[in-house]
Amino acid sequence: MMKKDKTLLPRQLGDAHIRLLRIYKVVIESGGFAAAEVDLNISRPAISLAISELESLLNMKLCHRGRAGFSITEQGEEVYQSTLQLLGSIENFRTQMNAINTELVGELNIGITDNLVTSEQMRITRSLSALKHRVYYNNG
What is the rounded CA–CA span in Å between residue 132 and residue 139? Predict the structure, then answer.
């Protein structure tokens, strides 16, 4: 049994830590190192090293591997669930930031000559009215 320590993780999680958790997630979902090789496109020794590094960082045994096969520990299951939450939160953040970045904000100025507004073929008046209605009801 490994000794419990209150401060297992560094104060800030960096890309390297997230990468280890992503590898761990794929290993668990694939059912082992061999199956995860294809999904991760990295060698079994590299996967093993990543999982060992994560276990060392967390100071706990996450999974059993060897001749008897692959299985996840109870602590490993808890880490997996927390990993799903963390990666889900990161994805939600990315989605929200992309939504903010793609929303049009500001003022729209359109310059047209008088006779285009009254011309039946141009349909500009109806289009501008529809745009105004859409903006008003989506933001109001």
Answer: 11
Write out pLDDT tens, residues 78-135. Answer: 999 999 999 999 999 988 888 887 766 677 777 777 666 666 677 777 777 787 777 7
φ and ψ at 63, to 5 degrees? -155, 155
Burial of 5 from C-beta contacts in 10 A (0-12 / 13-18 / 19+) = exposed
* SS3 category, 113: coil
Better-predicted residue by pLDDT, 123 or 41:
41
Count CB-CB contacts under 10 A for residue 108.
Answer: 9
Distance (Å) of CA 47 to CA 39, 85, 103 = 11, 22, 40
Distance CA 40, CA 35 (A): 9
Taking the C-alpha atoms of residue 104 and residue 66, their distance in angstroms, rounded to an integer, is: 55
Distance of CA 56 to the CA centre of its chain: 25
Side-chain-side CA neighbours of residue 125 (13 Å): 9
